[in-house]
Amino acid sequence: MIHYSDFAIIEGLRLHSDYIIKYVYKEFFPSIRYLIKTNAGLEEDAEDIFQEALYIILKKINEDEFELSSSFLTYLYSISKNLWLQRLKRKRLIEHNHDELVRHFSSPSHASEKFIEDEEKYDVFIKQFDNLSEDCKKLLHLFLGKMSLKEIADEMGYKSEFYAKTKKYLCKEALKRMVENDPAIKALL
């Protein structure tokens, strides 16, 4: 197998090269999968986090001032780890009482500009999560609770795991659209 330098990977991603993207998946996904699965995640979580991390990297490398200051794997791993920690935090908070989180985040000791922006984004997320249909909210709670698609299908009365997977995807996409279209998010961007 051909091994590409970090520079070649970055340039290939910048140009949306199919063979570089395939190379990145083949070469680096196992490390991210190991990270996620050894930290309370599933294969599907690893795939989601890997894709989110690549998306972030693709956005970053197209910025004029982008400079890779570590190996590509270290950069990808760091982004993936942060995304996974954020997801675990959201999962715990959604499973418990999200009002407790809002109180915690509202404390004056955390008043940096970045933190306030993150708090506002989180508030939008919670508001829009609460606006989902009861079916979607329940399904996403079960998913965040690490139930398998089979268990979710049984719990929700769906006919198959495939339907549960499709429904989960549709609910996640609906939430994503609702958050992206929220005027408060648009004001932050």
Low-confidence blocks of residues? 100-113
Number of strand elements: 0
Q: Describe the biggest sheet?
A: none
Q: Please tally the helical runs, counting DSSP H or I stretches of 4 or more residues.
A: 10
> How much helical structure, as a percent, in the residues?
over 70%
H/E topology pattern: HHHHHHHHHH
Tell me the β content. Answer: under 5%
Distance between termini? 41 Å
Question: Structural class, from secondary structure content?
Answer: mainly alpha
Essential attributes:
0% strand, mainly alpha, 189 residues, 2 domains, 77% helix, Rna Polymerase Sigma Factor, Chain: A
Describe the fold and architecture.
The chain is mostly helical and 189 residues long. The protein has helices at 6-14, 18-37, 43-61, 72-95, 98-105, 113-131, 134-144, 149-156, 161-181, 183-188. It is globular and about 50 Å long. Residues 100-113 have low confidence and may be disordered.
Question: Topology of this protein?
Answer:
Layout: H1 6-14, H2 18-37, H3 43-61, H4 72-95, H5 98-105, H6 113-131, H7 134-144, H8 149-156, H9 161-181, H10 183-188
Helix pairs in contact: 1-2, 2-3, 2-4, 3-4, 7-9, 8-9
Q: What's the short version?
A:
This protein is an all-alpha fold and 189 residues long.
